[in-house]
Protein backbone atom coordinates (compact mmCIF):
# COMPACT_ATOMS: atom_id res chain seq x y z
CA UNK A 1 0.00 0.00 0.00
CA UNK A 2 1.44 3.36 -1.04
CA UNK A 3 2.12 6.00 1.53
CA UNK A 4 -0.34 8.87 1.55
CA UNK A 5 2.40 11.47 1.49
CA UNK A 6 1.70 14.30 -0.89
CA UNK A 7 4.47 15.80 -2.92
CA UNK A 8 4.94 19.51 -2.30
CA UNK A 9 3.34 21.56 -5.02
CA UNK A 10 5.77 23.53 -7.15
CA UNK A 11 4.78 27.18 -7.28
CA UNK A 12 4.01 28.40 -10.77
CA UNK A 13 4.47 31.93 -12.09
CA UNK A 14 0.69 32.26 -12.03
CA UNK A 15 0.57 31.25 -8.34
CA UNK A 16 3.26 33.78 -7.49
CA UNK A 17 1.50 36.50 -9.48
CA UNK A 18 -1.76 35.74 -7.70
CA UNK A 19 -0.05 35.79 -4.29
CA UNK A 20 1.62 39.10 -5.11
CA UNK A 21 -1.72 40.61 -6.12
CA UNK A 22 -3.43 39.38 -2.95
CA UNK A 23 -0.60 40.75 -0.82
CA UNK A 24 -0.81 44.10 -2.64
CA UNK A 25 -4.58 44.12 -2.07
CA UNK A 26 -3.91 43.65 1.65
CA UNK A 27 -1.25 46.40 1.62
CA UNK A 28 -3.73 48.79 -0.04
CA UNK A 29 -6.34 47.98 2.61
CA UNK A 30 -3.81 48.73 5.35
CA UNK A 31 -2.89 52.07 3.75
CA UNK A 32 -6.54 52.98 3.13
CA UNK A 33 -7.59 52.13 6.66
CA UNK A 34 -4.53 53.08 8.72
CA UNK A 35 -2.42 55.37 6.54
CA UNK A 36 0.96 54.93 4.85
CA UNK A 37 2.92 55.26 8.08
CA UNK A 38 1.24 52.12 9.41
CA UNK A 39 2.15 50.06 6.38
CA UNK A 40 4.50 47.41 7.74
CA UNK A 41 5.34 43.87 6.74
CA UNK A 42 3.66 42.66 9.94
CA UNK A 43 0.48 44.66 9.23
CA UNK A 44 0.29 43.15 5.74
CA UNK A 45 0.94 39.65 7.12
CA UNK A 46 -2.00 40.10 9.50
CA UNK A 47 -4.25 41.63 6.83
CA UNK A 48 -3.40 39.15 4.07
CA UNK A 49 -3.38 35.91 6.04
CA UNK A 50 -0.07 34.95 4.41
CA UNK A 51 2.87 33.93 6.55
CA UNK A 52 5.62 36.47 7.12
CA UNK A 53 7.91 34.30 5.00
CA UNK A 54 5.32 34.28 2.20
CA UNK A 55 5.03 38.06 2.25
CA UNK A 56 8.81 38.52 2.40
CA UNK A 57 9.29 36.03 -0.43
CA UNK A 58 7.15 38.25 -2.66
CA UNK A 59 8.23 41.62 -1.21
CA UNK A 60 11.57 41.52 0.64
CA UNK A 61 10.98 44.99 2.14
CA UNK A 62 8.33 47.62 2.74
CA UNK A 63 9.93 49.69 -0.02
CA UNK A 64 9.55 46.78 -2.45
CA UNK A 65 5.89 46.53 -1.47
CA UNK A 66 5.32 50.24 -2.07
CA UNK A 67 7.07 49.92 -5.44
CA UNK A 68 4.71 47.04 -6.23
CA UNK A 69 1.71 49.20 -5.35
CA UNK A 70 2.98 52.04 -7.52
CA UNK A 71 3.69 49.66 -10.40
CA UNK A 72 0.18 48.26 -10.17
CA UNK A 73 -1.26 51.78 -10.53
CA UNK A 74 1.04 52.43 -13.50
CA UNK A 75 0.05 49.12 -15.13
CA UNK A 76 -3.65 49.92 -14.71
CA UNK A 77 -3.28 53.35 -16.37
CA UNK A 78 -1.11 51.93 -19.14
CA UNK A 79 -3.57 49.11 -19.86
CA UNK A 80 -6.49 51.59 -20.15
CA UNK A 81 -4.44 53.77 -22.48
CA UNK A 82 -3.35 50.87 -24.70
CA UNK A 83 -6.88 49.41 -24.75
CA UNK A 84 -8.24 52.80 -25.88
CA UNK A 85 -5.69 52.95 -28.71
CA UNK A 86 -6.43 49.35 -29.79
CA UNK A 87 -10.19 49.99 -29.70
CA UNK A 88 -9.82 53.13 -31.81
CA UNK A 89 -7.69 51.28 -34.34
CA UNK A 90 -10.15 48.38 -34.54
CA UNK A 91 -13.11 50.74 -34.95
CA UNK A 92 -11.34 53.15 -37.28
CA UNK A 93 -12.11 56.00 -34.89
CA UNK A 94 -9.94 58.86 -33.65
CA UNK A 95 -7.06 57.61 -31.47
CA UNK A 96 -6.78 61.04 -29.86
CA UNK A 97 -10.44 61.07 -28.85
CA UNK A 98 -10.14 57.51 -27.50
CA UNK A 99 -7.07 58.42 -25.43
CA UNK A 100 -8.79 61.54 -24.10
CA UNK A 101 -11.84 59.48 -23.12
CA UNK A 102 -9.58 56.98 -21.31
CA UNK A 103 -7.97 59.82 -19.33
CA UNK A 104 -11.30 61.05 -17.97
CA UNK A 105 -13.01 57.65 -17.79
CA UNK A 106 -15.03 56.53 -14.81
CA UNK A 107 -12.34 53.89 -14.07
CA UNK A 108 -9.75 56.65 -13.93
CA UNK A 109 -11.91 58.53 -11.44
CA UNK A 110 -12.56 55.52 -9.23
CA UNK A 111 -9.36 55.93 -7.27
CA UNK A 112 -8.99 54.90 -3.70
CA UNK A 113 -8.24 58.30 -2.24
CA UNK A 114 -6.61 56.95 0.90
CA UNK A 115 -4.32 54.59 -1.03
CA UNK A 116 -3.34 57.33 -3.47
CA UNK A 117 -2.69 59.81 -0.67
CA UNK A 118 -0.68 57.18 1.20
CA UNK A 119 1.44 56.49 -1.86
CA UNK A 120 1.97 60.21 -2.36
CA UNK A 121 3.07 60.49 1.27
CA UNK A 122 5.49 57.59 0.82
CA UNK A 123 6.80 59.17 -2.37
CA UNK A 124 7.45 62.41 -0.49
CA UNK A 125 9.96 60.46 1.61
CA UNK A 126 11.36 58.57 -1.42
CA UNK A 127 10.85 60.75 -4.52
CA UNK A 128 12.24 58.00 -6.81
CA UNK A 129 9.02 56.04 -6.14
CA UNK A 130 7.26 58.44 -8.52
CA UNK A 131 9.65 57.63 -11.40
CA UNK A 132 7.48 54.82 -12.89
CA UNK A 133 4.44 57.12 -12.80
CA UNK A 134 6.44 59.94 -14.38
CA UNK A 135 7.65 57.58 -17.13
CA UNK A 136 4.13 56.28 -17.85
CA UNK A 137 2.72 59.81 -18.01
CA UNK A 138 5.52 60.82 -20.40
CA UNK A 139 4.68 57.88 -22.71
CA UNK A 140 0.96 58.69 -22.66
CA UNK A 141 1.66 62.40 -23.27
CA UNK A 142 3.94 61.51 -26.16
CA UNK A 143 1.23 59.32 -27.73
CA UNK A 144 -1.42 62.00 -27.33
CA UNK A 145 0.74 64.83 -28.68
CA UNK A 146 1.83 62.65 -31.62
CA UNK A 147 -1.81 62.20 -32.63
CA UNK A 148 -2.83 65.83 -32.03
CA UNK A 149 -3.28 68.43 -34.73
CA UNK A 150 -2.68 71.05 -32.03
CA UNK A 151 -0.02 69.80 -29.56
CA UNK A 152 -0.51 72.74 -27.17
CA UNK A 153 -4.25 72.11 -26.96
CA UNK A 154 -3.59 68.41 -26.34
CA UNK A 155 -1.19 69.38 -23.54
CA UNK A 156 -3.83 71.66 -22.02
CA UNK A 157 -6.29 68.74 -22.11
CA UNK A 158 -3.72 66.52 -20.38
CA UNK A 159 -3.05 69.09 -17.67
CA UNK A 160 -6.79 69.65 -17.12
CA UNK A 161 -7.40 65.90 -16.81
CA UNK A 162 -4.51 65.72 -14.31
CA UNK A 163 -6.17 68.52 -12.33
CA UNK A 164 -9.45 66.59 -12.27
CA UNK A 165 -7.62 63.44 -11.21
CA UNK A 166 -5.78 65.14 -8.34
CA UNK A 167 -9.03 66.80 -7.29
CA UNK A 168 -10.47 63.29 -6.96
CA UNK A 169 -7.46 62.04 -4.99
CA UNK A 170 -7.59 64.99 -2.61
CA UNK A 171 -11.38 64.76 -2.26
CA UNK A 172 -11.91 68.37 -3.28
CA UNK A 173 -15.18 67.67 -5.11
CA UNK A 174 -14.93 70.98 -6.95
CA UNK A 175 -17.57 70.07 -9.53
CA UNK A 176 -21.00 68.53 -9.24
CA UNK A 177 -21.41 65.34 -11.30
CA UNK A 178 -23.23 67.08 -14.16
CA UNK A 179 -20.62 69.86 -14.27
CA UNK A 180 -17.84 67.28 -14.26
CA UNK A 181 -19.41 65.39 -17.17
CA UNK A 182 -19.79 68.65 -19.14
CA UNK A 183 -16.14 69.59 -18.52
CA UNK A 184 -14.95 66.12 -19.54
CA UNK A 185 -17.07 66.21 -22.71
CA UNK A 186 -15.65 69.64 -23.58
CA UNK A 187 -12.06 68.44 -23.04
CA UNK A 188 -12.68 65.50 -25.37
CA UNK A 189 -14.37 67.78 -27.93
CA UNK A 190 -11.47 70.26 -27.81
CA UNK A 191 -8.92 67.70 -28.89
CA UNK A 192 -11.32 66.08 -31.35
CA UNK A 193 -12.13 69.27 -33.22
CA UNK A 194 -10.10 70.02 -36.35
CA UNK A 195 -7.66 72.95 -35.93
CA UNK A 196 -8.87 76.33 -37.12
Task: Give the distance, in angstroms, between the N- and C-terminal Cα atoms.
Answer: 85 Å
- The number of helical runs is 10
Query: Would you report the number of β strands?
Result: 0
For the report, how would you describe the main beta sheet? Answer: none
Question: Structural class, judged by helices and strands?
Answer: mainly alpha
* pLDDT averaged over residues: 84
Give the low-confidence spans: 1-9
Identify the overall geometry: elongated
Q: How would you characterize the overall build of this protein?
A:
This protein has 196 residues and is mostly helical. It folds into 2 domains: 13-60; 67-192. Helix content is 74%, strand content 0%. The protein is built from 10 helices and no strands. Helix 1 crosses helix 2 (41-48) and helix 4 (62-91) packs antiparallel against helix 5. The protein is elongated, with a radius of gyration of 21 Å. 22% of the residues are buried.
Amino acid sequence: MADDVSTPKTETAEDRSSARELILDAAERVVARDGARRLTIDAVVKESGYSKGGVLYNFPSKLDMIKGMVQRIVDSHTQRHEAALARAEAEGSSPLEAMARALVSKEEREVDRQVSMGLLAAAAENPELIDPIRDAIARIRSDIVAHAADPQLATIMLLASDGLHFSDILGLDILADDEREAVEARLIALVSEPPQ
